[in-house]
């Protein structure tokens, strides 16, 4: 078979690089998305095609960052590419049949999550041409071993968007708007809403001393807290937060909780918001995202089922309502299921 060389793609988000995992029989490794140049194709066209096939995103080329000879007597080209805010999902390699795919995972990875062998290929592919990685490298000391540090810069409630929504850090008034309704009027619609009613005076007391400081403390504790706004008019309509994270068997996991002002119920806003939050948290390196709903909270149960969460146990008698013990149902989404989940 004639070889025309290959083209690879470096796509960066924050301090992470988009990587694909290949499995050949029992052997697995991470590499950049990319593949062989087809007859008549330019290396740039190959990079764009391969990124689309393997990661389901459409990329544009920023620059060529490396070019070196490979054993077949041809060249391997690497391009630094931009995908905007698209979220990569596992694609396929058309050279292999559906049940014999070598491509098994697509994920954002920090350098320190990649083994030395796979990382060495990244440097050869021109990572030093990308300013943040050049800065990263020059910041290392003189130790012989690879720096044993985990650089996490993104425990931040950054702005994220969906088609209809903007999620970002809120101001006190936004929380007051989201929780302004009288839940007591909504009691018995589906069970236990007084549980979610917030006292507005209490909200003010929490935040008024210094909301910025509280938000900074949350970030330091790896807690996220997004207010959800309607994109068309930036009215605050709900919130999504995480609880403090756990490290289970070396895997990071966290739990989400969410709430929407009743005016906006039933329009699919919360599933839309949860989807981008899960993308965000899995990109950040979480392995499991958990959630829970209480007995009788049919809407929340449905929202979690629609977003692909799976049952993960019951906390019996988690709390009491009118003297009656109420169970909480726990659900979970893991990185692998998320990468395959289709809405
Ligand atoms: C739970 C909540 C976030 C839902 O958000 P939302 O954006 O309105 O969600 P959806 O638009 O997807 O609608 C809810 C789903 O529940 C279904 N549903 C609503 N009432 C229902 C009922 N009585 N029986 C069965 N299904 C019901 C809806 O039909 C819809 O599912 P569908 O799309 O398959 O038709 C919102 O109701 C809320 O904020 N509730 C109070 C706070 C809360 O319970 N938070 C969760 C705890 S962490």
SSE blueprint:
Blueprint: E1 6-13, E2 16-24, E3 27-31, E4 34-36, H1 43-55, E5 60-70, E6 74-82, E7 103-110, H2 116-124, H3 131-138, E8 160-161, E9 165-168, H4 172-178, H5 200-207, H6 211-220, E10 225-230, E11 236-242, E12 246-248, E13 251-260, H7 269-284, E14 288-294, H8 298-306, E15 310-321, E16 324-334, H9 335-340
Parallel strand pairs: 1-6, 13-14
Antiparallel strand pairs: 1-2, 1-4, 2-3, 2-7, 5-6, 8-9, 9-10, 10-11, 11-13, 12-13, 14-16, 15-16
The structure holds coenzyme A.
Brief rundown of the structure:
The protein has 343 residues and is of the alpha+beta class. It contains 9 helices and 16 strands.
What's the number of structural domains? 2
* Average pLDDT reading: 87
Helix content: 25-40%
The oligomerization state is single chain
Give the strand content.
Answer: 25-35%
Structural class: alpha+beta
Number of helices: 9
Sequence stretches where pLDDT stays below 50 over 5 or more residues? none
Which ions, cofactors or small ligands are bound in this entry?
Answer: coenzyme A
Distance between the termini: 40 Å
Specify the CATH architecture of the largest domain.
3-Layer(aba) Sandwich
Order of helices and strands: EEEEHEEEHHEEHHHEEEEHEHEEH
Described by the principal axes of the CA atoms, the overall outline is elongated
CATH topology group of the largest domain: Aminopeptidase
Number of strands: 16
CATH superfamily of the largest domain: Gcn5-related N-acetyltransferase (GNAT)
CATH class of the largest domain: Alpha Beta
